[in-house]
Amino acid sequence: MSSEHSEEHEVAKVTDDGLLSEEINKAAFVPIFLMWAVMTVLGVLAGIFLVPHLMPKPYSPEGHDAQLTVQVFTIAAAPVAAFVFALSIYVLFGRRHRGDTPPEDGPPIRNNNRNVIGWLAASTLLVGFLLIWGITEWSVEQSVPPNQLQVNVTGQQWLWTFGYPASGVTSNELVLPVNRPVQFNITSVDVTHGFWPVSMGIQVDANPGQITVIRTTPNKLGKFVVRCSQLCGLNHAYMYAQAKVVSPADYAAWIQQQKSMSSAQALAGGRSNS
Amino acid sequence: MTTTTTAPLLEDTVLGPKAGRLYRHQNIVTGLIGGVVLAFIFWLIGHATLQDNPNWGSDMVVTVTGLGWVLGFNLGMGTFNAIWYWILGHDQTDDDLLYAAGVSQGKRRYWKYCTDHKVVGTQYLVLTLLLFFVGGTLAMMIRTQLLNPHMRFINQQTYNSIVTMHGIIMIVATIIMVSGPWANFIMPIQIGAKDMAFPRLNAMSFWVVASAVPFALGTFFLDGGANAGWTTYAPLSVQDGTAMDFFAFFICTFVVSVTVAGINTIVTILTMRTKGMTMGRLPVFSWGAMIGAALGLYAMPAFLLSMTGMFTDRVVGTSFYVAAGGGAGWLWENTFWIMGHPEVYVILVPPVAAMLEVASTFSRKPVFAYKIVVGAFAAIAGLSILVWAHHMFTTGWAPDLAGPFMLTTELISIPTGVIFLSIVGTLWRGSIWTRLPLYFVFLFVWDFIIGGVTGSYLSDVPADNFFHGNMFVTAHFHYTLLGGAMIAAAAALTYWFPKMTGRMLDEKVGKVAFWIIAISFQVTYIAMFIEGFKGMPRRVANYDPLFASENMWASMGAYSLMIGWLVLLYAVISSWRKGPLAPANPWYAKSLEWQVPTPVPLENFLVEPVVTGDPYGYGESGEAAQHHYFEEGGHGHEGGAH
User: Fold this and answer.
1) Complex ipTM, two decimals?
2) CA distance, residue B145 to nearest chain A CA (Å)
3) How far is A27 from chain B (nearest CA, A)?
4) Of the given ranges (A107-111, A251-255, B258-262, B568-572), which has the lowest mean pLDDT?
5) If pLDDT is split at 50, 70 and 90, which confidence band does B627 have?
6) Deepest in the core among B222, B256, B474, B490, taking most CB within 10 A?
């Protein structure tokens, strides 16, 4: 009995030591695959549902692009990240050893060309995909549509000013007509600011001595915030402006109202000067 | 683990009564006195001659005073002694050199200009921990101000200066956290050298950076602090008060230190390897230290250049970055990020390489794909000098370069992926020995994957147009630099602690610290990712109530993260003072640093080691696995084989 037992033990030990890599890999396949599948599904679900839930509602095609990119990249990255996580978790819960002396050495696997080449090929493919995605989106965003509304944006410590050269109006509130392409011409009078209309997926710095240009087309009515995205001194945190996307009729009315207000102000200013 | 030696230990050498000459009388106290005295003299001169200029008088006085401090401190420490002797035609005697290396001075040598690489490494470790403590405290102040949207803990200006100094102190600390302590203490032993190639320059690199630290702390007491963020974007930084002069001086001094240390590391590895230590057998950490140092030599001059330009813009009216004088902020942004992006890999490569040693030792397996992962480090270093403008996607500079920089940035994820392959491949089918250093390896894998994936969003221009300047970026680089590099450095610290201190680290307390760090880190920075997704800008002292709950979570996470690091610090300090004595090779590892006795004797090896294979022969039998490190007798080969 006892000899049988020890024989069994002996056999088991031999098998354990002699496990070929394929057998171990077979035994490992199911748990790794399950962990990988669960984490991949979680990542994909997060990409589909969580990202649009967290990000602000886009007010332009560029805002939509930014959100879609995050979703697609999350979904593309999920299987890769899940693969590394699954392997490392499997390793961790596999053969473990505590104590002051080390366990038996592991197998002397120094390299495996198939794994290396496969890994390099997979990551190159993924990078190629990300790159083609990004460059395609970026070049679409570069197109210049006709009939653009020009808006001159000036950053200063710690205020945004929006000028509408076509009508001579200036305002500290950004008002845009819906569905009309707009071109922002941005500059700064003091230090570098970051012009960031949060929900529009566009952003460019306001640089002193330079005019930078970005374009978008607001496609949704509503209100959002223009923030400063570049540390610009003491009141950086409070440097923001309200932005409104309105119907073309409301926009025309707003321009009229601004014009009359500014002429009233000019009148008042003239009086006090005299 | 006893050592039997026939050769006398160098520590026991009886030196002549005047050995060391001037060095005998110099230590940190004379350094401080020299610094203060010369700073005061320079201040007097500056005050008398330069103060009158209304435009730059005070800036110049501050700068001249700083110069006096650095020179005086290093004169007092003895940094320049050897040069004086050389100029005067007196060669130093053997006794002088042994004295400078710390012979017969006991613990006092840690407070002196000591040329022993192990002393320098220990000094660097203490300085790094100190900087992390300061940087962490500043982070707690930031998180307290951001605890809720109505917080009035500190005012705007203080907040900006704290954000600035938290950033730069952490950057400086992470640059030196592995290349300082471990590339100095461990690397020369790993390659079988008696010391670094240039021991005096080695001591200089430490004392120069140590003399720079007071500038960083001094910014808080000058003119309301440095307020332009650690990136000190010009022209905002040109506008700033005199604290910015100290900031620029801090960086320029630091660059001198990193450059000297980098050259030393590279020359040591290229020229000081022992018999049989071919480049193909070089331990992976030494490779990482060398590649990181080489990349630093590329990056740091750009830092010096950009800072000097900003400084002259401020002080003598040049206008490199001032639009009104024909300059451009874009010039600053380019020169700064030409430094800034390689620099994150200067931070990352050495700790990751150290972590591969840890993974190998605690899975009892060779480093997987050794040559390929070394190639990946080199590829990362090469590519990283071509990615800088991804920090400038939204600046409006050269929009046509968006595509090429997207390409280089995304390409770098291929060699970075190889690092994961190597770690997981090393652990795969390994005999996992669950000691504290290995815990950090697993945490690194988790954190750095998240850091890498979120980095891919930022590499994409349309997505970056939403995320730039937003808390998402803050969360991303904390996942890579804190969750990645610093966690890898914690693996290195806990791994080499017994060799450096001669004592075992308290693993029970260490594991408590590990779990606090691991969990609260996720809470803090996942909350910050959510803030970023929702559109909260970075570096703001107050915010929309829209972001209130995420900020509360981030602050709570940050507090417990700090507690976790403090618990680890407690474990380090208490074990260093009275932990159980460590055997020479507690991990039964095969690389050379574990084959010498603990504490390591002055010139490391009593018999010159001869190397016959790489140090990863786990599970291999026969000649190659045994590594006849020591030609004969000596005190060879303890533990290791079993």
Assistant:
1) 0.89
2) 13
3) 12
4) A107-111
5) low
6) B490
Q: Which two tokens stand for residue A174?
A: 């950004």
Beta-carbon separation of A237 and B540 below 8 A: yes
Average pLDDT, stretch A43-54?
95
Report the percent of chain B where pLDDT is more than 70. Answer: 95
pTM above 0.90, yes or no: yes
* Cβ B414 vs Cβ A78: under 8 Å: no
For residue B128, which phi and psi values (nearest 5 degrees)? -60, -45
Instruction: Please give the average per-residue pLDDT across B213-234, as a whole number.
Output: 90
CA distances from B622 to B64, B433, B629 (A): 64, 24, 15
What's the mean pLDDT in B313-338? 92
Question: DSSP state, A46?
Answer: I
Q: What is the dihedral of CA B360, B363, B364, B369, to 10 degrees?
A: -40
User: What fold, for A149-262?
Assistant: Immunoglobulin-like (2.60.40)
> Listing from the earlier edge strand, what are the strands of the sheet with A174-177?
A174-177, A240-246, A222-228, A193-197, A204-206
Distance from CA of A182 to the nearest CA of B (A): 17
Q: What is the pLDDT of residue B629?
A: 58
Three state DSSP letters for B23-72? HHHCCHHHHHHHHHHHHHHHHHHHHHHCCCCCCCHHHHHHHHHHHHHHHH
- Using a CB-CB cut-off of 8 Å, the residues of chain A touching B468 are 194, 196, 203, 229
The pair of three-digit structure tokens given for residue B145, joined into one six-digit string: 């101000």
The C-alpha atoms of residue B481 and residue B471 are separated, in whole angstroms, by: 15
**With an 8 Å Cβ cutoff, is B413 touching chain A?**
yes
Q: Which amino acid is at B482?
A: L
Q: Where in chain A is the domain with CATH 2.60.40.420?
A: 149-262
3-state secondary structure (DSSP) of residue B495? helix
Residue B566 has pLDDT above 80, yes or no: yes
C-alpha separations of A153 from A186, A188, A190, A197, A203 in Å: 5, 8, 13, 11, 12
What is the band of B21 on the pLDDT scale with cuts at 50, 70, 90?
Answer: confident
Cα B334 to Cα A64: distance, rounded to the nearest angstrom:
30
- What is the pLDDT, as a whole number, of residue B86? 87
> Would you call A209 and B323 a contact, using CB atoms and an 8 Å cutoff?
yes
Helix axes B199-218, B28-49, angle to 10 degrees: 60
Q: Where are the beta strands (DSSP E) in chain A?
A: 96-97, 149-156, 159-164, 169-171, 174-177, 182-188, 193-197, 204-206, 212-216, 222-228, 240-246
**Within an 8 Å CB–CB cutoff, is residue A116 touching chain B?**
yes
Q: What confidence score (pLDDT) does residue A21 get?
A: 55
Cβ atoms within 10 Å of B217's Cβ, excluding its own: 13
Give the whole-angstrom CA distance, residue A174 versus residue A182.
12
Helix (H) or strand (E) holding A10: helix A2-18
Asked whether the predicted pLDDT for residue A87 surpasses 80, the reply is yes
Percent of chain A at pLDDT exceeding 70: 88
| Region of B601 on the Ramachandran plot (φ > 0 left; ψ -120 to 50 alpha; else beta) | beta
Cβ proximity of B451 and B522 under 8 Å:
no
Least reliable range by pLDDT among A85-99, A255-269, B247-261, B361-375: A255-269
| Chain-centroid distance, C-alpha B627 | 32
Is the predicted pLDDT of residue B630 greater than 80, yes or no? no
Chain B: closest CA distance from residue A143 (Å): 13
**Residues 194 through 233 of chain A touching chain B, CB cutoff 8 Å:** 194, 196, 198-199, 201-205, 207-210, 212-213, 225, 227-233
Judge whether A232 and A157 are in contact, CB under 8 Å: yes
pLDDT at A116 over 50: yes
Query: Closest partner residue to B425 among A115, A225, A237, by Cβ?
Result: A115
